[in-house]
Amino acid sequence: MGIQDWSDDILVVELTDDPQLSEDLVSLAARLEGKPTDVVLHFAAVSFINSSNLSKLLRLRKVIMTSKRRLILCDVNTHVWGVFMVTGLDRIFEFTRDIATALATLQMAGQNHKP
Fold first, then answer.
1. Which domains does the chain have, with CATH numbers?
2. How far apart are alpha carbons 95 and 115 in whole angstroms?
3. Long-range contacts of 24-31 (CB under 8 A, 24+ apart)
4. Mind listing the pLDDT tens digit of every residue in the chain (115 residues)?
5. CB 76 within 8 A of CB 43
6. What is the pTM of this model?
7. CB 53 within 8 A of CB 83
8. Do 1 and 15 contact (CB within 8 A), yes or no?
């Protein structure tokens, strides 16, 4: 897993296929405990996702949402996108086309919350 601290408040995480995907999601959730951070998950190298991975993503989302931060998934390929749609998780997670769009979305949201 490649984690890039894009800013003090945003992590960009490069994901790959299993078995690394499962390990990376668990490690990321542990890293985020008690440290509020927005997260962009880059799915470009992920070609398959299973129910265990979906469960870990939901746990990660819960950790992030509990600290009132955002989780954005980007560059999701057609096969993986189909899994999100079939499971109804396309309505739960936030998606963008690429990292640049995800970062711009987070930055604009951050500007809107400043006094």
1. 2-102 (3.30.750.24)
2. 27
3. 25/53, 25/56, 25/57, 25/59, 25/60, 26/56, 27/1, 28/1, 28/3, 28/60, 29/56, 29/59, 29/60, 29/63, 31/3
4. 687 888 889 999 999 998 899 999 999 988 898 788 999 999 999 999 999 999 999 999 999 999 899 999 999 999 999 999 999 999 999 999 999 999 999 988 765 444 4
5. yes
6. 0.91
7. no
8. yes
Residue 55, token pair as written in the block: 């469960």
